[in-house]
Amino acid sequence: MVLAGLVAGFFWKLLMDRTLAGLDILDYFFPYRVYARQAVEHGRLPLWNPDIFGGAPFLANIQSSLLYPPTALFYVLSEPAAYNWSLLLHVFLGGLFTYLFARQSLRVGRAGALLSAVIFALGGFLGGQLDHLNQLSAAIWLPALLLCWDKAVSGRRLTYIPLGALVIALQFLAGHTQESYFMLVTLLLYAVFTTLLSARRRGLSAIPMNLIVAGALLAIGTGLSAAQLVPTAEMNSWGIRGNGLTYAEAANGSLKGTLLLNAILPPFWNRDLVTVPGNSEFLGYVSVAGLVLAAAALLYARQRHTLFFSLLAVAALVLALGPQEPAYPFLFRYLPGLNLFRVPARWLLVSSFSLAVLAGLGLNALLAAGPKRNWRPLSLLLVLAAALAAAGAHTQVLPPRSTIVTWTLFGLASLVLVFSAIRVFGPPPSGWRERLGEYERRQRRASAGFGAAAIGLVLVELWLGGQSLDYNHPTPSQVFTTPVDTPSFLQKQDQPFRILSVARDEYAPGIEAQVRQQFGHELSEADILDYLRDYKLRQILEPNTPMAEGLATLDGYDGGLLPLSRYVIFKDLLTGVPSAPDDRIRFVLKWLPNQALLSLANVRYVIMDAIGDKAANGVRYDLSSFVHLAPHVSKVSLQLNNPVRATSIGIVSAARGVVPLAADEPVGGVTLSDGQGNSRSVAISAAGPDFGTLPDPSLPPTHLTIARLDAPIDVRSLTVTVTANADLYVNGLALIDDGAGTAYSPLMVDGPEWPRVYSGDVKIYQNPAAMGPAFMVHDGRIVRSPEEAAGIMGSGDFDPASTATVEVNPQPPPSTSLLGRIVSKLRRLLPSQPFAVPASWSESTPPASADRVTVDAFAPEDMAFTTQSDADGFLLLSQSYYPGWQVTVDGQPQHPLAADVLFQAVRVPAGRHRVEFRFKPGSMQLGMALSLASVFACLAALLVTALLDRRKA
Q1: What is the dihedral of CA 263, 266, 270, 273, to 10 degrees?
Q2: CB 3.0-4.6 Å disulfide test: which of 250, 356, 363, 828 passes with 245?
Q3: Which residue has the higher pLDDT, 863 or 366?
Q4: CA 915 – CA 892 distance, rounded (Å)
């Protein structure tokens, strides 16, 4: 009850209709939980997610935490309330498990155990990870895992074997494999340590028993979570981490050596440290008093566990530094699994837990009556630590002076407490030896007082340090529920379709005044800006926010096993700018990507910002995108949807020549046509006064050319040509009717005009060539890999509307990682027969009339279409190819194909046919079977071990 009250007191703001709304919450956990809830409400197990990355597995993504029991909170509460209660529940459980571990495994008194629980639950690591619900959910099981191991091997309580296996399963299902890896490494080290102690006490016979217990824990625990782990292992082999990470990728997110003091000491009055993106990963403080008590444990706690947790804390802190310490390259190469994860700073979980345990051991030792070493060794140790900190201060990013002063004051207070305890709880003075009973009663009262004082001192520290953390700066829950105009508009359009956002979020939203009026009296300026930032991310439909709105985007955000490796190849084709595998498209470019591939992916709407748009002479120019002309691409044509009368034209362009161009040198021209044989032409000069920059800042500055036409014309189309040996970029143009005082500025594209269908804080353009969720092509080019397909698609003459690249036996990328090799070997055990390509597939027969494809059903795991065609062809489905998709034509199973790098296809004969795609992954069925078998094994083990424990008792 005390611990529950402390958790509620620390997080009281989250109980007052406030919530956290960090980027990961808004972009990841909120959309995933909404998607899962909606699926469950419709009685569907969400196996597939069509809303991101062109379609991707949902349950197989372990970060979805779909099978983790506490996720059920999101099915009965609103998302903000469910998130808050999940945080409170897991913080409380983390403290409770730490208390039980300290009490029952380490034999620490109540005061010391409560101190350890308070430090771990309310300290910096868990407090800094509240934006990462899956990370928090996994981390809190560490003390429970160690407790179950101790009970099983040291206490000989066999019931704890199935209970420990359940803990292993729960921490896997929580959805953060990196924390699971840290915990299993910690368990392995702790198991070796306790086994050596047991072997020393009971002989070598203890070793086989401990090995059996360890094997049973891992086997049953892994089996219980197999419904999650098997699909996840399959997805890993098809995803971006099938081969692990490079050294540079794995080292990304290491604890900065310059922030070491800030990482291990509370951020008093230092909110700026936490608001720097990524710095919340660098929090692992346990309080100044906690560090002093941990130091006291080294001298006064006589348990061997003190040495173990001291070494563990130091090792984890060193690992958190990543490549800034010399051992990391060696460990990266030889420690299995280390190359699968980024952000080494997360080793702070292990160091902060170890320091919390040490602090409890230290307090327990200080409060124990009996002889102690005098104060000199501890003083020497603390002076040495202070000297090292002072010597290294010049290498540190020092916090504000108020923070340093507060560190010093709490350090002095904790020293007074510790040295007073050393004096009070020493051996009884000579005058009291005849009255030991009374002396012991006084010692117990003093022990209670000193314990309460130590816990109170730490609580005050953690409370003040937590004022800088996000949970003390929550945002109104309306940020998740306030209707937003852009998704509201798109939800009214006929689905299915995809969207893509390349909009920036640096604009001032129209609701700013309303937000300031509504929340200005209760939120600080920084918190109001955070609220507006989160609103804008929903407004520009930042991935993965469309998932929560029932909209599908081609882009996506994961940071884990996704995206699939095929998506990365397709993304680089689409943008023309190779980027990191998990980069979001809107961060790669700020203009319209490859139009043909957008149409192939059924992207019907593109969201852009108006930040770069400019006005001149009363005319506003749409500068959201640009067309690029060069000697090898010398002409671009734009067909308008409606005729526009023009007497003048304004052109925003930039040029870069092979040799320097003269300012008045013409580099190209624009020809306006009315579609009836009449045209007007104007020249584009090489340079002029700067008008702005292109959406790509690496390109030259733009200038504005305004030319009056020799006669008015009703423009139906316009053609831009380049005439010099140069690169010409046309950023925008305006057709001006000087007499009427009007102007029209279309989006610069090559082909049919993309109408602007929505204007507000952002702009939405409609792609008139989007091909729909499925369409027919009749020319199939057989390829052996997605890389070969990308080579064909990257050529200038490839038209995805009429031709498809087809892989008949798609395979995951070759893997050199241990997990990848295991999955590959298991895959070879499955019966498979390579598909032989019929000779007729090489024949390309165009249909006599247009193909028709109608959508009969479009659910995430079940899609059906009716095709009507005069010729054999391929039906392309704009969902990512992935094992587990089954396809039938008129009820007969057909061989699924991969098409155009990312998507799926099936061969369909001429005539009218019903084609169905269903997602039924074999990995899910295998995982469910293993989990079900493990449930029975676990229940049987509980029954048997309970009987054995009772008989032994």
Answers
A1: 20
A2: 250
A3: 863
A4: 9
